Structures are given as structure tokens and as C-alpha cells.
Amino acid sequence: MAALGNKLTLQSPSRGFCIELGAMFTVMVFSRAGVPVSTTHCMTGATTGVGLCNGDIGAVNWKLLAVIFGGWLITCPAAGLVTGLVFWGIATAPSAQAGNGMFTGSYHGDE
Q1: pTM here?
Q2: Model pLDDT, residue 20
Q3: Interatomic CA distance for residues 29 and 26, integer angstroms
Q4: 78: buried, middle or exposed (CB in 10 Å: 19+, 13-18, 0-12)?
Q5: Nearest C-alpha neighbor of 8 from the set 53, 56, 54, 64
Q6: Which of 46, 60, 59, 57 is nearest to 15 (CA)?
Q7: In angstroms, rounded to a whole number, what is the distance separating the alpha carbons of residues 54 and 81?
Q8: Run means of pLDDT, 10 residues per run, the chain, 111 residues
Q9: CA separation for the pair 30, 37 (Å, rounded)
């Protein structure tokens, strides 16, 4: 949220209310329709929309918006890569099977 403050577009209390209201309606409508949405995406879109309502296309920091959008694009492949590496690590980990030396010592039932 630090990037969405006054860095993306100028905000005032009334603009903040409009941003929250727009994001809330977006989340409610799409949730009612059964479509999963991200509140962060809704807030960013609402902030950009309120900035564009200023009537000046220069009111929005387009470089910051591009960085935010780039982060969204990188998130899914990065999450897939990390998940794949964790799965690979777990799948190739040594497992305890009879005869491979992991069953050494006494078992609590054996005396």
C-alpha cells in the first residue's frame, strides 16, 4: 500500500473514499458472480481510475503503474518455480524404507 499512497496519484480524503468504494463494489460484484478477484488489483485499478477522473492523463504515475503491473506478471511464474523446487526437494528426499539404513536402533515395541 505504500506504493499506492500519493506516489501513484494525488489522494485526498474524498478521493480515498471513492477508491475504497470502487474497490469494494468491484470485489462484491465479482465475488457474487463467483469470480475470484484480488483486492490489491481492485485497489490499484480504483486508484488509477480516480487519478484519471482528474481530467489529466499526467495525473497518474505511469512508470509506477508499469512497475506494479510487471510485479503482477512476475508473481505467477515465480510462485510456480518456487513451488516446483519445493516439490522436487520433497519428492527426491531420502525416504525411510527397510534396508536402507534409516531403520537402525531399537523400535519402541521391540524389547
Answers
A1: 0.71
A2: 94
A3: 5
A4: exposed
A5: 64
A6: 46
A7: 41
A8: 78 92 95 93 93 90 93 94 96 76 61 52
A9: 7
